[in-house]
Amino acid sequence: MIRYILRRLLLLIPVIVLVSFMVFTLMDLAPGDAMSGWDLDGMSVEEIAELRADMGLDDPLLVRYGRYMLRLVRGDLGVGDHSGISVWENFITRLPNTLILALATVIIGVTIALPLGIFAARRAGKISDNITTAFTMMGMSMPGFWLGILMILLFAYVLPWFPAAGFNHGLRSVILPAVVSSMTLLAACTRQTRSSMLEVLKADYLRTARAKGVPEKVVIRKHALGNALIPIVTTIGVSIALAVSGTAVIEAVFAWPGIGRLIVEAVAARDVTTTTGVVILTTILYVLILLLVDLAYAFIDPRIRAQYASSKKRRKKATVAVAEAKDTTPAATPALADDAEIAAVRLDEQDNVPLARAASEVPQPTQSVQTEAAPAEAFVSFATVTDDDVQKEAVTITSGESVLRKHRKRSRGGEAFRHLLRNPGAMAGMVILGIMVILFIVSQFIPFESVTAANMQYRFSSPSLQFPFGTDNMGRNLFIRVIYATRFSLPIGLGATSVAALIGVFLGSISAFYEGSVADEVVMRFSDSLASIPGILLGMVIITTLGRSVPNLIIAIGVSAVPVFVRISRASVLTLKGSEFVEAAKAIGLSNFRILYTQVLPNGLAPIMITFTASLGMAILISAGLSFLGFGIPIPNPEWGQLVSVGRETIRSAPWLTIFPGLFIMLTVMAFNLLGDGLRDAFDPKLKK
């Protein structure tokens, strides 16, 4: 186990180098520099040039990055370009606040998710299970910033139980942001608990435990849950790692002084030193937490604990076992081998006798007709066949063909599509997506002037027949603006997921097909580096560099989702590359490239398709989150996240400005999640209710 820990810690070094280089380069390429926000009035051009030279801003990028890494090796993260405060001091001051929020998030999420998931699994297919599934689906589909604003409206303004923002009211300040932050963990953990429990509830060892009189509570808690904990712990661990890395959106909504808010402020201010330093520290925390999760597997499952044993100990145990076997039965092995061979030959002969007998007893009319010594009765029997017999035989053949046609085996895709049509959730998702596609087409015919034109006469009008979603502070029809925003959200989600799938599937398939090579190691280290940076943070850095536009948003969100497709495609190819059809393709001389992309990948598309559908909803959530933080579609173009951000300023007097855009986000994401669940159930019958 010690060797495993040391290896994981050593692999952290290339991850830190890659992450720091990516963030430093992107931030440096962004418009402006460390002096952009400074007040330089009264300084001459020569003084400004001299100041830039003293700060090293005139040096090439690689020189500045090398200088930064030399300081990093000495343990110096530098000083903020704008704040003038040490990056380490700034980080360590915000870290306790983030840890408090992360701890409260985990406690709330896990405490509710585990019992809820077990309850749903034990009542799979019943109304209570369907209600639980719908609840978790809503929790996964709600954008956190939208839910946070609604919680503030209800529990801070309507029912003044908790403060709306800040960290000055003790425990009361933690409850609202922790509840909102825990919704994603609660939904994911509940779904994972239900799925894992469904796989073990009907196992033979549970039936045996019940037959021996073990109480049902003990059977569920000790035997069933204990054997289903590995995927549940993984879900919880990843959620903790993301929470500790900083939930930028939640901290922005509740003005929480944590790491996520610090990164948002640094990126907005073009502070290269602070951004790079904080990202490095959050990456280290992320990797260390995932390492602890991997080590926790050893305490849950003894089989995994055995794998951590050193190879020397395993060889020693194997040597001792062989020696003991030789001492106890020194001459038994040859005899046993001979007996086994004799038995195998006898069984083989016995198996072949019926086959030979059956082959010899098959009637061969053609040969009998052509044989000169055939008896005359054979010819008479063929000659006396009547027309009625022929018609009966034809009817029999026709009915047999109809039965075969009715019950013939469908292709895997056809079978999955048939199950998909029978899934109510998947059908509901497709209906919602169909409506969204129609609205997207309608949005192409809405003139931009009708979306941006102000009409102060109808300022802050509540929802009515004339204005179904009400109007904003300039009298603009919110219904038209929300419909118009579909032209941005849907293409961004589809485009970003397509970019991630193309890059991720290509890299993952190459990594799997050449497993153990240099290419495999490079791809996986690159994937780990990208995965250690929260998607919304990487999106902010890329958008800051490239600018705010639809193509740049597609690139920013797509790059952050690449590691997901790398992992899933690599696992799919690894499962199939040792199959017989791959060996046959190699035997006939097909190239590796052709085998990979014409034989292996087409047979492993099912998990990739499911991941693609689920990633569409996540891409829309990240896009809306970036727009909410001010890194999305530029104003005056309406976008769902940006509309929610504008509406939060008047949440008490005009709540409809926030409710309707957020509702569209939730419905669209839920539709993709429902469709993804339907595909998962269709391709994996074990997961059907």
Measured on Cα atoms, how large is the radius of gyration?
33 Å
Major beta-sheet overview:
none
State the helicity in percent bands. Answer: over 70%
Mean pLDDT: 75
Strand percentage lies at under 5%
Please tell me what the overall shape is.
Answer: globular
Structural notes for this entry:
The protein has 689 residues and is mainly α. It is built from 33 helices and no strands. Helix 6 crosses helix 7 and helix 12 packs antiparallel against helix 13. The protein is globular, with a radius of gyration of 33 Å. About 8% of the residues have low confidence.
Detail the topology: elements first, then pairings.
Layout: H1 2-29, H2 45-55, H3 61-73, H4 87-122, H5 127-141, H6 144-158, H7 171-200, H8 204-211, H9 216-227, H10 229-245, H11 248-253, H12 259-268, H13 272-300, H14 302-307, H15 311-328, H16 332-361, H17 365-370, H18 376-383, H19 387-407, H20 412-421, H21 424-443, H22 448-452, H23 478-484, H24 486-513, H25 518-531, H26 535-546, H27 550-560, H28 562-576, H29 580-587, H30 592-603, H31 605-629, H32 640-647, H33 656-683
